[in-house]
Write a sequence for this structure.
């Protein structure tokens, strides 16, 4: 047969078309399979149901091993949006106890990328949290009718004692900001809020695990991926042992009822906080579960501010509890010796300036001055220091040295306690006064009230307690802390290294002696505990909010002290009326585990009394 | 009998046989992988699709053997008879077939279901080859051309009537056969133009340039290029082509400047005006040179414009909504991940997640978990892409390309037009299936439900291709006997 050679060439055209198409496809495959990574992620999201395994949160014990905080189960309703098929919305709402509007709102919030940055229709999302056991039971039965929904078990906190809410803190659902800051969190997770729960969040929370399940196009679970080879088991949170003595804490809260203020008790030899009371307080279990939001709002609106941890957030004028620091500075700077005498004519008088005092012998030296809490002595002392032009070039230089001493004693800056929200108090420096009065336009007399813990000086109860512990230790302190043990971990070295003040050790003996005298025959007489050598110092702080604050700082026993304490009761009058009784009762309870019969009346009086009526709050 | 049978085994094209065996083996393994269930492990289990496919393969081999045993002259002699029987079957199917997913293409005979459309390919190829083999048959003869076109169009109409548009489109590929046998290359060119016009017009129909659709303007630009190109390459009138291109550039530049100066220019009117000027210019040229090719160019331009203005109508009023969706998805105009786009998206995910080396045999999560619908039939290429990765997918494509080239070589070595035309029919059909099926799976073509030859699960498809291929091998084995 005749062959048409011209037409035969057309096989090249046809072959060419085949090759071109094949090449286009190969290039496309290359871009899909090799260049593009996106599809692999889609595939994972498609086929793997990553079921989060929640670790149990670490438990919290007190120093004696009593369990304070543990876990209780709760149920969250989860959904995978892509797998939700049309269902009876009304029936669903009724089952979980919400209205149709709430349902729509929740769906909207869940899909809102601002409120829920981790939203994806492929992954499980929290629809609602903390179902009651009843609702859980009902929903579990009907769950097959609501494809795409499932129930996830979670742990909530439970508290064995209704105390120490300010110390323990609580847990709450994470906010969008938490999720943004730490990608460990997913919507519906819990995180510590306030207290230990917050500061030890990363230790307590443990590590989430994941179980990888294979899922087909209908969302049915087809089994575990590779028999669980890639599953990650959750790691439980670590248990904490706190330095708190829960009984002492409970006792302190009882003593402080109907009063506004704080107690901080520290073990001087370790810096461990034995009790940290802030009053008024609340039951920590109020902030658990579904009522949390409502209760939180209530506490937040309470005019006595129970959520405000006065023990470390409130900066008060320390009043006379400040005097030991002054004595120590003057001694160490050589302004006075233990024998230096200053006069007291019912106060400190210089020209028209007068700082009042109360009746006692005059002139007097440091020890009796501490014993009687003489204002004049310390005013003279401060004037001798600030106005000493042979030792210091200017008042400013003298004052800055004064300030440095106080900073070395833990004032003016945060101590670094392991709780959030600590206040730094306030110790002025020379430039602060320069700003107010003009450069070098001020002298000792201008600022004389700081010598007796008034004026600009502010301290937190924690700082006052720390001062007490420092004196008890004769010159050093450990940063106060609440942590005693973390399971399988050593605690921060910050809490086990002593910090020495700028004052020489032996000067502390005078101050200790003076504080002892205050208890044996001075302002703190009511604080004497039979059989224990108590040292103390009262404080009565004038303040712009009304009646004076009543304060006390002390430790016991005098030698080898076991407890140092600071008590601060707002608007309660003399330090001796509330501060000393409460402080000494706390120390007695801690050391003797009981109150001596002859001191029962004191306990009774404290429990009965109500100073909240004098608080500035009432008047507004 | 004895002598001819030994003759067959010596002269059969073993390369093709081996390629065929490799392809069906790969297909069988892929079906096992695609329908693999965690609970069910045996590839030979007859309750599973892999087991059934093995049975189809076995029967195909028997069928292939039988085809080889038959005298090659039978196929040419009874070509029209086969064609007639199959056409009757197709007509009968329209009325007898039950409605399965909207299509009436399966004849159910007791436990066995048959899809006559699969066999129509073979019958049409045979009939077409027979026509070309007739002494004196030429496409230049209008009657012969009509006969050839009719042979192809009849099954298309009948299969469309069964609502099997995908299978019907396969026959369009036979245009390659006509081209090989002398049909003007212009028709291939027109086909390409039609596809480009359609894609551009539809894809950019909703992008607006001022008051007019960008799609229409772009198609006009394309038509102008076609006209100028045809003047240059087809009529070889370099001077006129250059004049025309300059004129177009001036118009384009002027429009551009005016638009830049924010003068509102209706680009569509500009295009229509330019087209009118072009037509007049072509007419002037024709009257001065009397070249018939100028009339062809003129007709091309006018038909193109008509085609352009009917695309909208065709797309919106002739195509079914689901077809419109599939086209839009393929053109990337719509995602529609829950509806028409679901298959394609899932299949892209499956293939894309395979990476270069693949996830390994039976380790594909997407296909195992049945994310991809029809994964053991039309979308079987996914399983290969996911589990064997890029090299596996390319390997399969190259196997097919090798087979196609081998078949073209077989076609070219035939002494008779009958053998050559038949071979090119097989090549065209195979190529169309490969291009459309793989293109659909990787998201380059609209979803058209046609199987991947030798891979997709199903007896009819496997048998159809086995018959197509082995009849060719039988004819080829005896190519020297005739003269």
């Amino acid at each position: 047969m005749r062959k048409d050679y011209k037409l035969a060439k057309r096989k090249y055209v046809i072959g060419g078309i085949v090759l071109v198409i094949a090449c286009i496809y190969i290039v496309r495959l290359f871009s899909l399979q090799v260049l593009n990574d996106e599809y692999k992620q889609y595939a994972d999201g498609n086929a793997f149901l990553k079921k989060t395994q929640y670790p149990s949160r670490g438990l919290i014990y007190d120093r004696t091993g009593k369990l304070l905080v543990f876990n209780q189960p709760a149920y969250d309703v989860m959904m995978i949006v892509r797998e939700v098929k049309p269902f009876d919305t009304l029936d669903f709402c009724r089952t979980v106890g919400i209205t149709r509007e709430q349902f729509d709102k929740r769906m909207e919030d869940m899909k809102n990328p601002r409120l829920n940055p981790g939203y994806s229709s492929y992954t499980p999302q929290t629809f609602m949290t903390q179902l009651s056991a009843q609702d859980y039971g009902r929903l579990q039965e009907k769950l097959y009718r609501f494809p795409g929904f499932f129930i996830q078990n979670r742990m909530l906190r439970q508290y064995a004692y209704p105390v120490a809410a300010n110390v323990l803190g609580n847990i709450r659902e994470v906010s969008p900001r938490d999720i943004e800051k730490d990608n460990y969190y997913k919507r519906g997770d819990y995180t510590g809020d306030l207290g230990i729960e917050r500061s030890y969040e990363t230790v307590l929370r443990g590590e989430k695990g994941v179980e990888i399940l294979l899922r087909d196009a209908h969302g049915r679970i087809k089994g575990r991926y590779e028999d669980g080879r890639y599953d990650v088991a959750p790691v439980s949170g670590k248990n904490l042992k706190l330095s708190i003595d829960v009984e002492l804490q409970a006792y302190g809260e009882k003593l402080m009822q109907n009063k506004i203020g704080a107690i901080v008790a520290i073990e001087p030899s370790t810096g461990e906080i034995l009790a940290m009371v802030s009053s008024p307080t609340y039951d920590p279990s109020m902030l658990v579960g579904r009522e949390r939001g409502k209760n939180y709002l209530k506490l937040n609106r309470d005019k006595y501010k129970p959520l405000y941890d006065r023990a470390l957030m409130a900066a008060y004028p320390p009043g006379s509890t400040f005097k030991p620091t002054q004595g120590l500075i003057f001694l160490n700077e050589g302004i006075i010796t233990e024998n230096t005498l200053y006069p007291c004519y019912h106060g400190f008088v210089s020209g028209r300036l007068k700082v009042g005092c109360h009746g006692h012998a005059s002139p007097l030296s440091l020890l009796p001055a501490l014993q009687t809490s003489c204002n004049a002595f310390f005013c003279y002392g401060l004037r001798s220091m600030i106005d000493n032009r042979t030792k210091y070039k200017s008042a400013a230089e003298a004052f800055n040295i004064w300030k440095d001493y106080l900073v070395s004693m833990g004032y003016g800056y945060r101590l670094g306690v392991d709780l959030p929200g600590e206040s730094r108090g306030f110790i002025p420096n020379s430039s602060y006064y320069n700003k107010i009065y003009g450069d070098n336009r001020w002298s000792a007399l201008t600022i004389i009230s700081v010598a007796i813990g008034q004026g600009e000086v502010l301290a937190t109860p924690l700082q006052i307690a720390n001062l007490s512990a420092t004196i008890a230790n004769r010159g050093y302190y450990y940063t106060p802390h609440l942590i005693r043990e973390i399971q399988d971990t050593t605690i921060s070295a910050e809490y086990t290294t002593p910090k020495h003040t700028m004052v020489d050790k032996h000067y502390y003996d005078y101050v200790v002696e003076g504080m002892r005298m205050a208890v044996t025959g001075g302002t703190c007489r009511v604080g004497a505990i039979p059989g224990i050598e108590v040292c103390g110092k009262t404080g009565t702080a004038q303040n712009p909010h009304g009646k004076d604050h009543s304060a006390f700082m002390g430790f016991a026993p005098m030698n080898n002290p076991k407890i140092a304490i600071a008590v601060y009761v707002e608007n309660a009058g003399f330090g001796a009326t509330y501060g000393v009784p409460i402080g000494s009762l706390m120390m007695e309870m801690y050391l003797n585990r009981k109150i001596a019969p002859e001191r029962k009346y004191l306990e009774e009086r404290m429990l009965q009394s109500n100073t909240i009526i004098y608080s500035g709050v009432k008047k507004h | 009998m004895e002598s001819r049978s030994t003759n067959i085994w010596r002269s059969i094209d073993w390369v093709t046989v081996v390629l065929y065996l490799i392809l069906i083996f790969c297909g069988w393994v892929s079906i096992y992988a695609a329908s693999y269930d965690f609970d069910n492990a045996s590839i030979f289990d007859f309750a599973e699709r892999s087991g059934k496919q093995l049975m189809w393969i076995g029967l195909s081999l028997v069928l292939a053997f039988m085809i080889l045993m038959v005298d090659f002259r039978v196929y040419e002699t009874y070509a029209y008879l086969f064609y007639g029987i199959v056409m009757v079957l197709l007509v009968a199917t329209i009325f007898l077939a039950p409605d399965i997913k909207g299509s009436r293409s399966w004849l159910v005979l007791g436990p066995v279901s048959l899809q006559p459309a699969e066999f129509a390919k073979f019958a049409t190829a045979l009939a077409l080859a027979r026509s070309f083999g007739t002494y004196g048959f030429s496409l230049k003869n209008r009657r012969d051309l009509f006969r050839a076109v009719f042979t192809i169009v009849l099954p298309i109409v009948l299969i469309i009537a069964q609502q099997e548009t995908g299978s019907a489109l396969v026959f369009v590929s036979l245009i390659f056969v006509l081209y090989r046998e002398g049909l003007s290359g212009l028709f291939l060119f027109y086909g390409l133009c039609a596809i480009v016009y359609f894609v551009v017009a539809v894809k950019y129909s909703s992008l607006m340039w001022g008051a007019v659709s960008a799609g229409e303007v772009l198609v006009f630009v394309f038509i102008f290029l076609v006209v100028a190109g045809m003047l240059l390459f087809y009529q070889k009138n370099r001077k006129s082509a250059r004049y025309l291109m300059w004129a177009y550039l001036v118009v384009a530049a002027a429009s551009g400047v005016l638009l830049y100066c924010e003068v509102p220019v209706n680009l569509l009117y500009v295009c229509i005006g330019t087209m009118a000027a072009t037509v007049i210019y072509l007419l002037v040229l024709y009257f001065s040179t009397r070249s018939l090719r100028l009339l062809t160019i003129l007709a091309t331009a006018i038909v193109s414009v008509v085609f352009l203005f009917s695309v909208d109508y065709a797309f919106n009023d002739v195509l079914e909504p689901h077809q419109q969706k599939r086209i839009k998805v393929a053109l990337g105009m719509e995602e529609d991940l829950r509806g028409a786009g679901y298959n394609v998206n899932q299949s892209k995910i499956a293939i894309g997640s395979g990476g270069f080396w693949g996830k390994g045999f039976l380790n594909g999560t997407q296909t195992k978990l049945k994310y991809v619908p029809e994964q053991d039939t039309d979308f079987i290429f996914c399983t290969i892409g996911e589990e064997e990765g890029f090299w596996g997918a390319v390997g399969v494509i190259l196997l097919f390309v090798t087979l196609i080239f081998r078949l073209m070589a077989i076609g070219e070595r035939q002494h008779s037009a009958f053998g050559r035309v038949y071979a090119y029919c097989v090549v065209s059909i195979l190529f169309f299936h490969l291009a459309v099926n793989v293109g659909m799976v990787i998201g380059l073509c609209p979803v058209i439900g046609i199987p991947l030859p030798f891979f997709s699960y199903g007896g009819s498809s496997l048998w159809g291709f086995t018959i197509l291929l082995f009849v060719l091998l039988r004819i080829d084995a005896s190519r020297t006997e005739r003269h």
Q: What stands out?
A: Residues 70 and 158 of chain A are 5 Å apart (CA to CA). The radius of gyration of chain A is 34 Å.
